[in-house]
Amino acid sequence: MAPKALITGFTGMVGSHLAEYLLQKTDWDLVGMCRWRSPLDNIEHLLPRIEKKDRIEIAYGDLNDCVSLQKIIAEHNPDYVFHLAAQSYPWTSFFSPLDTLNTNILGTARLLEAIRLAPACDPIIHVCASSEVFGRVPSEFVPINEETSFHPASPYAISKIGTDLLSRYYAESYGMTTMTTRMFTHTGPRRGDVFAESTFAKQIAMIEAGLIDPVIKTGNLDSLRTFADVRDAVEAYYLLVTVNPTAGEYYNIGGTYSCTVGEMLNTLVSMSTCAEHIKIVTDPERLRPIDADLQIPDTSKFKTHTGWEPKYDFETTMRDLLDYWRNQLARGKRFLTR
């Protein structure tokens, strides 16, 4: 019987890319967990296989509903769990802090408890935290290694600290094979439009289509980030659970290209057919009360353990992101300028 993997957050950018990767690279059967109300746009191309249960099926559940999680674990008894589901928008967390904390911290606890209490269920578990746990890092601690102190800069970041610590707690207290990743900025096709690089790419595509004036609205452009491609990220997650998985370990994962958010925006604008007409305007509503900065990772621990190396260069990632939004508009879809 083929191994079975459960992916929470299946319909998100990372979850959908991970499903594609595992279908292509393994013989595993996949269970994608999502809520009844989750949009299926990111997995639209997988729906024919899901309909036939051709190595992949949907399981409806919610991190805030214990019963649904217990049912999924009991029914599918997974060999691997990729816990990607979360309230994943840092900006949104300033306006919905309680939902963010409940979903990300208590939701993770509910899932791990459902696994712990299930008879004969002993999967290898990837718990996805975030580089946002490091928050505002002093320059003398850059690049950021795994032992750098946490200094969260949003309720989202605080919630991911809880997620991170829960993963290690369940490994140390109950012997569960839980491992934690702090993934730094990662992007590509299907990236949600509340994230900076994706809203910029979307606005550029809308300008090119004549849907909005040639003005890009931005928030803070000075934050320094290291960018990775989502397709490299999911390969890293696969290696995490298959190359000598070590209970309780935690790893930084990230790309190799660092630049400010403003420099990233300039790269996207340079790829536009309307580059010479585009103006950039700061929108006060897009500014966070506090912002993470100097998000540059030391990924040597993970690379040494797994041999992982990113394959996608920064320009390819940005171009593929811009083309994704162009294609969405070409299909007749319409979007807010947020």
> What's the overall average pLDDT, rounded?
96
Radius of gyration using CA atoms only: 20 Å
Spans of 5+ residues with little confidence (pLDDT < 50)? none
Q: What is the total tally of β strands?
A: 12
The biggest beta sheet is recorded as: 7 strands, parallel
Provide the helix percentage: 25-40%
CATH architectural label of the domain at 4-187 and 229-253: 3-Layer(aba) Sandwich
Q: Structural class, from secondary structure content? A: alpha/beta
How far apart the termini lie comes to 46 Å
CATH homologous superfamily assignment of the domain at 4-187 and 229-253: NAD(P)-binding Rossmann-like Domain
**Spatial sequence of strands, sheet with the most strands:** 3-2-1-4-5-6-10
CATH topology of the domain at 4-187 and 229-253: Rossmann fold
Helix/strand order, N-terminal first: EHEHEHEHHEHEEHEEHEEHEHH
Strand fraction equals: 15-25%
Descriptive overview:
The chain has 338 residues and is an alpha/beta fold. The protein has a domain at 4-187 and 229-253: Rossmann fold (3-Layer(aba) Sandwich). The chain is 40% helix and 17% strand. The chain contains 11 helices and 12 strands. The chain has helices spanning 13-25, 47-52, 66-76, 90-93, 97-117, 155-174, 196-208, 230-242, 261-270, 300-306, 314-330, and strands at residues 4-8, 29-34, 56-60, 80-83, 124-128, 177-183, 186-187, 215-218, 224-229, 250-253, 257-260, 279-282. Strands 3-2-1-4-5-6-10 form a 7-stranded parallel β-sheet, sandwiched between helices. Strands 7-9-11 form a 3-stranded mixed β-sheet. The chain is globular and about 60 Å long. The N and C termini lie far apart (46 Å).
